[in-house]
Amino acid sequence: MSTRESSKLQSETNLMTEGPVWKRILFFSLPLMVGNLFQQFYNTVDSIVVGNFVGKEALAAVGSTDSVINTFIGFFSGMATGAGVVISQYYGARQEEKVERSVHTTIALTFLMSLVCTVCALLLVPSLLRLMGTPDDVFDQAASYLRIYFIGVTGLLFYNMGSGILRAVGDSRRPLYFLIFSAILNVILDLVFVAVLGMGTAGVGLATVLSQGVSALLILFVLTREKACYRISWRQVRLDMGMTRRIFRVGLPAAVQMAVTSFSNVFVQSYINRFGSAAMAGWSSYGKIDKFCLLPIQSLALGVTTFAGQNLGARKLDRVRQGTRTGTLLCFAVALCIVVPVWIFARPLVSLFNRTPEVLDYGTLFVRLEMPFYLALCVNQVYAGTLRGIGNSKAPMVIMMGCFILFRQIYLFTVTQFTDSIIPVALGYPLGWLLCSVCLFFYYRNTKLEHYTLLK
Question: pTM for the full model?
Answer without folding.
Answer: 0.72
